[in-house]
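Dear colleagues,

For the upcoming journal club I promised to circulate an example of a predicted protein-ligand complex. I picked one with thymidine-5'-triphosphate because it came up in last month's discussion. The inputs are reproduced below in full, followed by the predicted structure.
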Amino acid sequence: MVLSPVLGKLVSKRVVLASASPRRQEILTNVGLRFEVVPSWFKETLEKSSFAAPYEYAIETAKQKALEVANRMHVKHLRTPDIVIGADTIVTVDEQILEKPVDKQDAYRMLSRLSGKEHSVFTGVVIIHCSSKDNQLETEITDFYEETKVKFSDLSEELLWEYIHSGEPMDKAGGYGIQALGGMLVEYVHGDFLNVVGFPLNHFCKKLAELYCPPLKHTIQHIKHDSIPSVDTFESLSDGESESSSFKEHKGAIKLDSPSGVICNSENSSGVRTGSVVPLENQNGVSDSAAKVPSKILDLMDGFRASKALFVASKLKMFDHLKKKSPLKAVDIANEAGTSVCGTERLLDACTALGLLEKTPQGYSNTDSANTYLASDGEYSLHGYIIHSNDHLWPLFTHLESAVKEGSRQNHRAFGKKTEDLFNDYYQSQEVKQRFMAAMHSIARLTARDVATAFDLSEFKTACDLGGCTGALAHELIQIYPNMKVTVFDLPEVIANTSCFQPSEQRVASVTFVSGNFFTDDLPEADLYILSRVLHDWPDEKIHILLKKISAVCRPGCGILLAEMLLDDEKKNGRTALLQSLNMLVQTEGKERSGSDYRGLLEQHGFSKVKIKLTGNLLDAVLCVKI
Ligand SMILES: Cc1cn([C@H]2C[C@H](O)[C@@H](COP(=O)(O)OP(=O)(O)OP(=O)(O)O)O2)c(=O)[nH]c1=O
């Protein structure tokens, strides 16, 4: 099965998986698809009786999940995704639809109904292509479903309760997980196993191939084996035909970028014309080698080149020049930036291939997302963080090997000085301080809304953002909770430099800036203490000192809101957070932690009712209350 042409076409797309299911994330990651995870907030409450067939219910639920995410990203984050994938898995037995059990009794009811019987598992999947026209979200929807039949053995009461007490049933349709302990309940499976686990990968890949590389009828290769029925293979999918009429006619198909491989149309010995994808280096008719192209690894090998191209184009303000005026030729940009024409042209072409710029015969222009995030003046600009990544993180990462060997930060190697205190480095020079604050500000602007709305905080009348830096989160909070007063508490060097980051038109009176060190000075009084990207800077010992101090000034009912990138419990998925944890290794004594890790730390200091929310944005949120 050759997926390279499809994946090649998706590489420059913003693909979003609208699902919190770790199984779906893993299945899609395994095939090399690159995507972001934005769990849907759609409540699965559609009226089941209004659907003629169970699969229609699963498809409609999947569609609503994905549409909710597409709309939210479009409206809230000004980031229209290109493709949103949604899925919903249900179990049906005796014409009843079973979803996830609400409690152990419900799990018992479900599992006893399944005992000794065959049932069906349906997963509905939708692929939504999104675009933005006149600021309106436009969608084209492709959907399908897959059915798998599963038979359970007769389950004794003892086995049933043993299984329920394992906790496994609770987040799974029908109350079991075939991929884990639940496998022991199963006598046979007819159909796609992964469909039961939550995502029918085989059908999905075929659907992607249909959408992105539809075959011409005469090129379909039928392979005949003695015992296996003839099948249409991915090998037959010709990229060259993606512009063909069958492609254009297909519902939901969109114009696609260039693929990562090239097509070699050839005649085989029996005269049948076949199309196959071969690596760029080898176009001499080697028909099946594409399956061996390790595109995921090649992408990772190239990753640093792509990052550096982005950093340099940002540093040279190329996206700013193009935001002011476009299209521009390489020579014009080189003149503006004071750079060589040949080097500038190569950089601009690379940025085009990376999906950051558009190129026409008239010259280069920014993509929408370059205008929003890469130009330095945008409300949600990431320019500050990109420059910080280039000037500060890049040198640190060149010493990652030493950091791994020694298990400690590398500031001395990267910058030639020993760091006694994490922030000493940042605040020694005005330039570095401003750069660091701009970096923190850009991430805070991008994430503040999702953090501020992760929970209903209206019961807290006052909040104190410890290490709140430029006040970006504080300003978002008073927008959402107009009665809230927020104090931003940070080091004197920071507070003295916040003025250039303040919004012009806000009710500034509701945000107060107070300087101090939260480890050594008294904390301002507040109903809610906020620690956003603070705890990840420190080892557990220091966190205990800080939480103990906060706990001492908290009245019962007061809370703590954490905003951090949360690792998954098994530390397997979520590459952004896992890479961020390496980032903490090279420069701090801290690390990223999971929601359970933070819960454990908070509970030791008298905080309970810990709620964890994965926002789908760069920072997740954890809320707890003092008892
Ligand atoms: C039957 C079965 C289901 N499941 C899981 C797959 C799905 O994650 C879950 C069904 O619930 P869904 O509502 O389909 O998905 P979800 O709530 O996990 O995630 P989201 O709504 O954010 O997309 O049950 C298994 O993991 N193993 C199994 O054997």
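Two points we might discuss: Residues 115 and 155 are 5 Å apart (CA to CA). The first strand starts at residue 15 and ends at 17.

See you all on Thursday,
B. R.
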